[in-house]
Amino acid sequence: MIKIHREFHVAIERKLKHMKRIHILLISFLLVSISINAKKDKSNPNVIIIYTDDLGYGDLNCYGNPTIQTPHLDRMANEGIKFTQFNVAACLCTPSRAALLTGSYPKRVGLHKGVLRGNSTTGLSESEVTIAELLKQKGYTTACIGKWHLGHQEKFLPPNHGFDQFFGMPFSNDMSTKEQAILGNKNYPYQLPVISQLDTIELDPDQSQLTKRLTQKAIDFISDNKKQPFFLYLTHPMPHVPVYSSEEFENTSLRGKYGDTVEEIDWSVGQILETLKKYKLDNTLVLFSSDNGPWTVYKTEGGSAGPLRGSKNTTWEGGMRVPLIAWWPDGISNSGVCTQFITNMDILPTLANLTNASLPANKIDGRDVSELLTNPYKELEAKPFFYYNKAGKLEGVRLGALKLHKDKEKYQLFNVEEDISEKYDLAKQMPQEAEKLMQLMTTFDKQLEKEKRAVGKLN
Ligand SMILES: [Ca+2]
């Protein structure tokens, strides 16, 4: 009996010693983690949005393209998060950019019908709150470098929408007498201006130098503002057709002129990341994306949507699902591939959360998805997304994996998680689901019609 008692005591003592060891290990692990985390202050991150023009879902090596080499973007994706179901809220330039900067459907801000041109008298309304205005309230210095496309008259330009600095073009790079003549339109009366702040400093610039010039401007802005939080909206006019690259990149890619142009953009991304490294700006969130899918009417001079159906100007996946890569050394600890469905309207509320900025007083449509940056595998609650076409008419809705799409009065239903090429119409197999989604479309559009705000007007 005594022997059993002693053995029991010895066993207990051993167990206690073992637990003590585990405790010590746990405490040291916690202390190490705390000291690592203490070094990483994620508050007020610098924000850089690199927005390309008409770059398709299938145009980057890390999204499966075998003939366009994009080592810098591939590295960004490896070290950060690659999103596979990121959608823009419109299949063409002006509305997509309005959605990104306001967190709202283009129709809510009155910019849903086509793109702005040289004779347009409308633009982004001064009553809309842009990402730049939101971050300025938090003390950020802000710059828009590149293409704007939300109104070319003074009151609509970036300096009147929260950007301290602006250098770039108000339109797409094909909107000039010179380029339109090459495309066969001899009567286009406008030249493409280069604007610095509010002044036109050049007309019809040498487009082969644009990627380089804008990259240098971006690097200068980062260097000048490295000591305080900044927001840089670097919006390349490429690879919108006509595509141009500098001499160094001409005839270097396996994918012709289009590949040369994308590879120069990749070089530009490398330059930006290098600048951040040089100044040890690890607390910088860099987002790389595109405003809409590829413009395939120009055949090989345009991009590719990879496996997706359709292209720019359509509400098929190819027009609206584009690459998104998020990179942030201090903020993203779990790199990976995120398959959650998110949109470019989610960026404004996400940045508001990350910077503790208050959301605009006006109603917006995006939602904060910042938790995906800490856990790319987190599942978000399904939220309906509405597909407005290039004329601003509602043409589809997605809820969870199901997308109802109206094409020439015909409704089709696709599971766009499993059938990303939108090949298999499920409308007859799932009539109740199709009906429910149709109702959702009608209800939402009626509501938005009532709630939509006025577009900015010249007078
Ligand atoms: Ca575009």
Chart the SSEs and their pairings.
Elements: H1 2-39, E1 46-52, H2 71-79, E2 81-83, E3 86-87, H3 93-102, E4 122-123, H4 131-136, E5 141-147, E6 165-169, H5 177-182, E7 193-196, E8 199-203, H6 210-224, E9 230-235, H7 256-278, E10 284-290, H8 317-320, E11 324-327, E12 336-338, E13 342-343, H9 347-355, H10 371-374, E14 385-388, E15 394-399, E16 402-407, E17 410-415, H11 431-451, E18 456-457
Parallel strand pairs: 1-9, 1-10, 2-12, 3-13, 5-6, 5-9
Antiparallel strand pairs: 2-11, 4-18, 6-7, 7-8, 10-11, 14-15, 15-16, 16-17
Helix pairs in contact: 6-7
Describe this structure in words.
The chain has 11 helices and 18 strands. The chain has helices spanning 2-39, 71-79, 93-102, 131-136, 177-182, 210-224, 256-278, 317-320, 347-355, 371-374, 431-451, and strands at residues 46-52, 81-83, 86-87, 122-123, 141-147, 165-169, 193-196, 199-203, 230-235, 284-290, 324-327, 336-338, 342-343, 385-388, 394-399, 402-407, 410-415, 456-457. With 459 residues, it is of the alpha/beta class. It has 2 domains: 46-374, 3-Layer(aba) Sandwich (Alkaline Phosphatase, subunit A), CATH 3.40.720.10; 385-457, 2-Layer Sandwich (Arylsulfatase, C-terminal domain). A hairpin with a 5-residue loop joins strand 14 (385-388) and strand 15 (394-399). Mean pLDDT is 93; it is low at 32-38. The protein has a 10-stranded mixed β-sheet with strand order 8-7-6-5-9-1-10-11-2-12. Residues 53-54, 92-93, 240, 291-292 line the site of calcium ion (CA).
